[in-house]
C-alpha cells in the first residue's frame, strides 16, 4: 500500500470513529440522565399562567400562554404547537430563574499533602450538589473563588450530564503570604489578570490582603482585558476608603466590606459609602444572610442544627459547620456585640444604597457555615425586603439586575421571547409576599421541566445518601487530611 493510500485510509477511519463517538454520546447522555423523570428537549405550553416578566416596565401578563421550544421561550400568547406538552398553570405565577451573585461551590479538592499524580482526596457528586440550586429555582450563579474544578462542573452541565445552573467564574487574587493566587507587586497583579483571562475566567475578584498599588494595578489591568472586578475592599484602605473606588471596581462583595470601615456604624457613614459607590458606578451585593448566620453562630450552633436544609448538605460540610465552627469556637463578648451591631448596620446600609439609587443584587456567600446553597437565596430576598426593598426590587436583585451585571441580559434575567427558558413556576404571587418564591411548583432549567414531585424525590434520595455517610471518618472535618 502506498503512503498516500495509507494516509487517506487512516483519515477515513479517524472520521468514522469521531462520527460513531458523536452518535454514541447522544445515547449516553440520555442513558445517564440524573433522573428518569426529568423531561428534556421537549416543546411545552404553559397555559393560564400569570407571568411576572421582570422587564423594566414591571409588566405582568395575566392568564397567559407561554410556549417553550427546545431550550428557549418561543412565544407568549401565540399559537400552541401540536406536539407541545401542556402544563396547566391556573392561579400560578411564572418568574425568571433566580441568580445568586456570590457562591462558593463544593468541588473535588485535595486536603492532604500533595505529590505529582495524586489528585483530589474529596470527591463531590456534581449532580447531588447542583440539586440544591435547582430545587430552589436558582438557575445562574457567580462563583467567586473559582478553580479548574469549577470549569469541569460547568462543562458537565453544558454537556447535559448534570442538571444545574449557569455558572460564571471569577478568579480570586489576594496579597500577603498565603496560598492561592498571590500578588504583592503591581507587575504580579497585572500578570495574574492576564493569566486569568488566558485561562478562561470571566471576572476578577480582589481580596483583603492586597496592598494599594497592587489592587489598583489589578483593577486597571482587568479593565484593559474587559473583565469586571468584584470583591473585598483591601484592609490597606482602612481610613482612606475613597481611594478604593477606582474605575472598573464594579461591585462590592459584602456589606461587611463597608461596615469594617466604620468605627461607630453611624447612618452618616452608610450615606457616605453609598455616595462613593454611586459616583464610581460600583454595585453592591450585601450578603445580609451571611452576617446574620455568623451572628447566630457566635451565640449558639442551634440555628445550624435546626436548619431544615442541613440534611441536604454534604456530610463533610455538616461536620465542619457543627464540630469545627470557628465563628462559635473563637467567640467572645466583644466580638459578639460588634457582629450584632454590624447586622443592624447592614440593614441601614442597604436602605442608604437604595436611596442613593445604587444597584443592589442578591448574593449569599453560600458555603459559609450555615449558609446553604439554594435555600440561602430565598433568605437573602426576605432580608432585602426587611432592609427596605420592595418585593419587586428584591426580585429584580435576583433576576434582571444580575443578568445585566454579568453581561447576559440578552439571554436571561427576564421573561421575553428568545431568551433561555430558565423559569420558576410558583403557587403564589411573590409580588404580594417575597417568601412566596419558596412556593415552587416546578422549575425550567435551560428548557428542561422538573416538577415539584420529581424535585422532592431527588431531594429524598440525597437526604438518605447523606444520612448513610454521616459520622464516617472520611467525612469528619478534623480527619480530612488523613484521606
Automatic annotation (TrEMBL):
Chain ranges of the Amidohydrolase-related domain: 94-449
Pfam assignment, any one: Amidohydro_1
PROSITE patterns the UniProt entry points to: PROKAR_LIPOPROTEIN
Protein name: Amidohydrolase
Organism: Flavobacterium frigidimaris
Amino acid at each position: 500500500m502506498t503512503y498516500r493510500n495509507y494516509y487517506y485510509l487512516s483519515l477515513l477511519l479517524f472520521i468514522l470513529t469521531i462520527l460513531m463517538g458523536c452518535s454514541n454520546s447522544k445515547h449516553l447522555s440520555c442513558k445517564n440522565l440524573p433522573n428518569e423523570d426529568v423531561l428534556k428537549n421537549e416543546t411545552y405550553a404553559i397555559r393560564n399562567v400569570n407571568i411576572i416578566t421582570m422587564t423594566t416596565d414591571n409588566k405582568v401578563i395575566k392568564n397567559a400562554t407561554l410556549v417553550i421550544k427546545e431550550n428557549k421561550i418561543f412565544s407568549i400568547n401565540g399559537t400552541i404547537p401540536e406536539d407541545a406538552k401542556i402544563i396547566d398553570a391556573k392561579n400560578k405565577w411564572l418568574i425568571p430563574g433566580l441568580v445568586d451573585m456570590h457562591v462558593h461551590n463544593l468541588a473535588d479538592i485535595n486536603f492532604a499533602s500533595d505529590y505529582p499524580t495524586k489528585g483530589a482526596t474529596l470527591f463531590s457528586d456534581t449532580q447531588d450538589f447542583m440539586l440544591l440550586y435547582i430545587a430552589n429555582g436558582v438557575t445562574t450563579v457567580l462563583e467567586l473563588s473559582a478553580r479548574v474544578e469549577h470549569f469541569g462542573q460547568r462543562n458537565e452541565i453544558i454537556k447535559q450530564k448534570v442538571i444545574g445552573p449557569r455558572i460564571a467564574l471569577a478568579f480570586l487574587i489576594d496579597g500577603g503570604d498565603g496560598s492561592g493566587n498571590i500578588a504583592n507587586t503591581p507587575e504580579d497583579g497585572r500578570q495574574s489578570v492576564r493569566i486569568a483571562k488566558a485561562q478562561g475566567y470571566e471576572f476578577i475578584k480582589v481580596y483583603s490582603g492586597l496592598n494599594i498599588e497592587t489592587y489598583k494595578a489589578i483593577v486597571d489591568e482587568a479593565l484593559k482585558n474587559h473583565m469586571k472586578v468584584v470583591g473585598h475592599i483591601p484592609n490597606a484602605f482602612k481610613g482612606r476608603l475613597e481611594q478604593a473606588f477606582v474605575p472598573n471596581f464594579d461591585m462590592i462583595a459584602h456589606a461587611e466590606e463597608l461596615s469594617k470601615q466604620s468605627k461607630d456604624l453611624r447612618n452618616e457613614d452608610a450615606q457616605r459609602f453609598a455616595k462613593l459607590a454611586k459616583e464610581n458606578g460600583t454595585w453592591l451585593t450585601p450578603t445580609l444572610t451571611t452576617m446574620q448566620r455568623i451572628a447566630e453562630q457566635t451565640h449558639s450552633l442551634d440555628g445550624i442544627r435546626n436548619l431544615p436544609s442541613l440534611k441536604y448538605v454534604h456530610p463533610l460540610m455538616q461536620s465542619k459547620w457543627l464540630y469545627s465552627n470557628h465563628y462559635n469556637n473563637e467567640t467572645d463578648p466583644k466580638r459578639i456585640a460588634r457582629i450584632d451591631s454590624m447586622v443592624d448596620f447592614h440593614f441601614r446600609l442597604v436602605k442608604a444604597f437604595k436611596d442613593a439609587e445604587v444597584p443592589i443584587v442578591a448574593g449569599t456567600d453560600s458555603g459559609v457555615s450555615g449558609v446553604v446553597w439554594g435555600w440561602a437565596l430565598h433568605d437573602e430576598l426576605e432580608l432585602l425586603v426587611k432592609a427596605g426593598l420592595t418585593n419587586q426590587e428584591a426580585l429584580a436583585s435576583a433576576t434582571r439586575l444580575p443578568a445585566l451585571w454579568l453581561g447576559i441580559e440578552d439571554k436571561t434575567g427576564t421573561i421575553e421571547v428568545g431568551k433561555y427558558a430558565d423559569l420558576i413556576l410558583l403557587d403564589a404571587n411573590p409580588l404580594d409576599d417575597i417568601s412566596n418564591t419558596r412556593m415552587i411548583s416546578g422549575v425550567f432549567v435551560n428548557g428542561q421541566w422538573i416538577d415539584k414531585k420529581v424535585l422532592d424525590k431527588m431531594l429524598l434520595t440525597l437526604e438518605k445518601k447523606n444520612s448513610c455517610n454521616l459520622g464516617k471518618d472520611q467525612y469528619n472535618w478534623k480527619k480530612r487530611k488523613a484521606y
